[in-house]
Design a protein that fits this description.
Radius of gyration: 28 Å
Oligomer: single chain
Number of strands: 5
Distance between the termini: 9 Å
Length: about 210
């Protein structure tokens, strides 16, 4: 075969360009068809709740001139409270109440993701996934409302409110453009590997 170099690879690719393009088109069409006709779509919808130490709310409600009286201890307690809330929202009861016989606990839990927006924030984001966008939105909003009740049930001194509701939903799978592009690239790479192996096995004198 001779020495393998970049020039060799370029010449081989140019020589078999039609083969590479053919594989690229076939794989791209296959991926595009899968996304459009076979793949089960998955939609996401997000809501959020705001959880604070009751002392912060109480002091804030005394009037604008009293907001400076909020201590760093109360803020720290609220930030720590957010982590506890995450654990509470992983307990089975809240999921069983929302399932209404339509889902099992495991199924509903797999559809909902609960996480803090950041280490220094009191917001907790709730993301629901479903093959039905409207259902994802409904689950996210219902879970947010139920979460507020459960938080105050387990932690009476806490204050929990729905900060935002899911107004829309978005398609998260499949990403047709991304999957088609990856499939096209894979087709080119696979075609080149086949061409390279075939050329390597060719022992004829040139």
């Amino acid at each position: 075969m001779g020495d393998v170099s970049l020039i060799y690879f370029l010449q081989l690719a140019w020589k078999k360009l039609w083969f590479l393009i053919l594989f690229m088109i076939v794989f791209a069409i296959g991926a595009f068809s899968y996304c459009k006709f076979l793949a089960t779509p998955v939609y996401n919808a997000s809501s959020s709740i705001l959880v604070t130490n009751g002392a912060i709310v109480t002091q804030y409600e005394t009037g604008p001139n009293q907001t400076d009286s909020i201590s760093s201890t109360d803020i720290t307690a609220s930030l720590s409270l957010a982590n506890t809330v995450i654990d509470i929202l992983k307990t089975p009861d809240i999921y069983l109440e929302l399932s209404e016989g339509k889902y099992t606990y495991s199924e509903l839990k797999s559809l909902i993701e609960v996480e803090r927006r950041g280490n220094n924030t009191l917001f907790i984001d709730i993301t629901a996934s479903s093959t039905d966008g409207k259902e994802a939105k409904l689950i996210a909003n219902e879970f947010a409302k139920a979460s507020c009740k459960y938080v105050t049930k387990f932690i009476p001194y806490a204050k929990a409110n729905v900060a935002s509701t899911a107004l829309n939903f978005q398609l998260v799978f499949p990403s047709t453009a991304t999957i088609t592009a990856i499939a096209a690239m894979f087709g080119v790479v696979l075609a080149f590997i086949i061409v390279f192996i075939a050329d390597s096995l060719n022992q004829s004198i040139r």
